[in-house]
Amino acid sequence: MRYDNDEALESFNRGVNEINGRALPNIQGTVRSYSLTDEEVENAKRGSLDVLSGFMVIDDDIRIIVIEGLAAPDCAMESMYLDYLPKLKDNDDSLTILVNPEVLFPERLYPTYSPDVKRIRVRGKLKKLARRPEIYNRLQVEDICFEAVDSLMALKRAEDLKTSKKLDIFPSSEALNKLELLYGEAITRSDMDGTLKREFVQNATDHRSRKEARSPSSPGGDASPSGTAAKSKRERKEFQFTDCRNPDFELHLQTRPQHKIDFLAEQRELRKQAWLNMLHRRETRQKELTKTIKSVLGLMDSEKTGRRRAGSAASVSDEEKADDQPLPRVYLYAGQSENFKEKAWNQLRDKIANDRNATYTFSKDFMSQNISAVDESREKKKEAEREKSSWLTSKGFQYPKPKTIKELLTHPKRPSNARVEELHEPFFDATDKAANEDEINKSPDTLQKEKGFRTQVNGTALFGALELPTFEHEFQLKYVGDRENLPRGSLLNDSVPDPNFFRSVHLGGENQARIVEEALQKEKEEWRSRVVVDDIAFKVGKMNVRDKPIQSEKCADILHDEAKRKELIYLRERRSHRNTSFAHTTAPLSILNTEPYAPNAGQKLLARVPDATKFITARVDTNDPFSGMEGSASQKPADFVRFIHEGTNKSKIVTMIAKRKHPAQDPSEKHGAKWDGA
Asked: I want to staple 580 with a disulfide (CB 3.0 to 4.6 A). Which of 4, 32, 539, 576 is the partner?
């Protein structure tokens, strides 16, 4: 229910108090102040104690109430539904009641929330709480608290009790306790008993009626005959006026002697003098600033011209002559070659370089304060210029590069360092008998054993180029270890060359091209046989959509209209002083065009003359009524269709619908009860 629905809330509170009061007649105090004992909680779970239990979640907009009790006839739930909260109208935003006597639960979910339902006040609004990111972060909010928020939002959107039970969207008591702990706040009387608007209105009415009853009934001030208390007549005490005058002080002001010193005039003179001093200091400071700027930047051309004209027309004062004298230029930026600070450093370094017996420093305690006699930046520049001068002259590049002294002294056919190192090793001749003493000193038995022995495989030329070996029969395990029969028999093709071994691995020719084309066509047909849609093209508004945009159309969405801002119009139509075009016009469709380049070719493309020799269709659909070839026996390709009609690719039943307005009825047709009845 809505938060301000006081009538429904009052009926609910009265029902809970009366029903649970009848079930617990011997309690001390009110139902709201009483808590069930452990024995009474067990009786409520077993069903022997007919009390209502549940909870109420309250926020700034709504109240979500869930109550449970015994569902038998003449029990608590039936009494609550029929006597206190009857469903007199359909559910709406003000009040939604979900009840179904056929939907039962095996046990109570909230037996401890009795005899008065548990009221939980949520800070702010529940729907805003459900959208907070921290609710979905398990490091900040536990699962059980998230379960309570999620269940309450599901109950808020529930439409019937049967579906709510099936989806199990009722929060547990532990989840509600955690929700109250994290996001609950203090509950007020308005949260428990409603906004009490009717009581406030009634109290205001009673107060107004009592006030009118106490007022006199006649101008004479007689009391009303109804017996109400008359207005008491109390005389107001008159207070005397406040005495704010002092005659003695006024007399003193009139008779006091005149001051000889006018302090106000002195203060005005001092302020005037201070103002003049400030103007003088400002003028002096401005002159110094101007002098500094002229020292750094120099005189402007306009100032020089103006001073010459003034000097020729009238006499110039000495002060102005002094100002016209050229001042020494001051360079204070690091990138300037005449920087006065860098020049001072260079002079100091030149002085230090001549004195080799001393060390110059700014501090005797720190080595980092020593003055280096070498300027690293200058040395780097000199080294860069020296390297650059070896291949670049003052007029440009120098080719070939001049050789150094070492390169001039080296022989052009000198071998590399690696070859020189190999040549330093002693030469070994295999045919020299003196070098093969080990072979000569071998014993006759060793030579006899090594006779005919080769470390190379026989038939090296055909190694790997032989056919696979074949045998007399398959492998038989019983012949393993037999001295007469081999497991697979004797070898049939011993050292048979493979005729296809020396064929090239790079296949080509017309036959191979045809095989590749047939395989590609077969693959396409197999893929299309598995397609289950009518058209494999993805279309939006009956137009194909590209996977990747054309490079020349990337800016079509922002440059499709004429520019409106002046600076953009200037950029698009900009030309140099030599009438060279620097305009940012649309790029050509392709740099491979055979036709001469023309600006704005995309716009002129739509205005071209039909030319069937250049722009033709691959086929002509004679059944399309919008192709211009309907019913034509000629299959000659026509010009490319540049504009798609809205009736293209549509069935006839759609294109047959006429869009013309029905003609008005003739006066002779206006007969009958519709017209004659009037």
From this structure: 576
pLDDT given at position 600: 64
Give me the long-range contacts of 169-174 (CB less than 8 A, separation at least 24): 170/66, 170/109, 171/147, 172/109, 172/144, 172/147, 172/148, 173/109, 173/110, 173/112, 173/113, 174/144
ω into residue 497 within 30 of 0, thus cis? no
Query: Residue 344 — φ and ψ, nearest 5°?
Result: -65, -40
Please provide the DSSP assignment of 591-640 as one string. Answer: TT-SSPP-TTHHHHHTTPPP-TTTSB-S---TT-TTSS-TT-------B-
Treating both helix axes as pointing N-terminal to C-terminal, what angle do 173-183 and 143-157 enclose, rounded to 10 degrees?
100
Query: What's residue 227's pLDDT?
Result: 45
Q: How many of the other CB atoms lie within 10 Å of CB of 234?
A: 6
C-alpha distance from residue 426 to each of 422, 423, 437 (Å) = 9, 8, 17
Q: Among 67, 63, 40, 65, which residue's Cα sits nearest to residue 53?
A: 67
Q: Name 382's Cβ contacts closer than 8 Å, sequence gap at least 6.
A: none
441: left (phi over 0), alpha (psi -120 to 50) or beta: alpha
CA-to-CA distance for 115 and 31, rounded, in angstroms? 6
Residue 241, beta-bridge partner list: none
For 319, residues 6+ apart whose C-beta sits below 8 A from its C-beta are: none
Closest CA to 341 of 350, 331, 349: 331
pLDDT, residue 362, reads: 87
Could you say which DSSP state residue 365 is in?
Answer: S
Q: State how far the Cα of 620 lies from the Cα of 641, in Å rounded to an integer.
A: 10
DSSP 8-state secondary structure symbol assigned to residue 460: G
CB 98 within 8 A of CB 160: yes
Residue 307: its pLDDT value, please?
Answer: 55
Q: From residue 489, how far is each of 245, 470, 479, 483, 542 by CA, in Å?
A: 151, 10, 9, 12, 73
Q: What is the mean pLDDT of each run of 10 residues along the chain (678 residues)?
A: 89 92 88 91 91 94 93 88 86 90 91 93 92 90 93 92 91 94 91 76 81 62 44 57 80 79 86 94 90 67 52 54 61 69 83 83 87 84 83 69 86 91 80 61 79 65 76 90 88 81 71 89 92 78 70 71 71 70 63 60 58 54 52 54 69 70 81 71
What's the confidence (pLDDT) of residue 218?
43
> Would you list the DSSP string of 382-418?
HHHHHHHHTTEETTEE-SSPPP-HHHHHS-TTPPPHH
**Cα dist from 216 to 204, 206, 537, whole Å:** 21, 18, 94
What dihedral angle (degrees, nearest 10) is formed by the CA atoms of 420, 424, 425, 427? 90
- Cα–Cα distances in angstroms (integers) from residue 123 to residues 60, 99, 129, 227, in the given order: 8, 29, 9, 52
Rounded distance between C-alpha atoms, residue 133 and residue 498, angstroms? 74
Q: Residue 91 in contact with residue 8, Cβ under 8 Å?
A: no
What is the Cα gyration radius of the chain?
A: 56
CA dist., res. 159 & res. 166, Å (int): 12
What tokens were used for 264? 């106000």
Please give the Cα distance from 459 to 646 (Å, whole number). 79
The encoded tokens of residue 486 equal: 């081999």
What are the structure tokens assigned to 568, written together? 């953009």
Q: Is the pTM of this model over 0.85?
A: no
CA-to-CA distance for 541 and 558, rounded, in angstroms?
21
- CA-wise closest residue to 461 among 493, 417, 501: 501
- pLDDT the model gives residue 152: 94
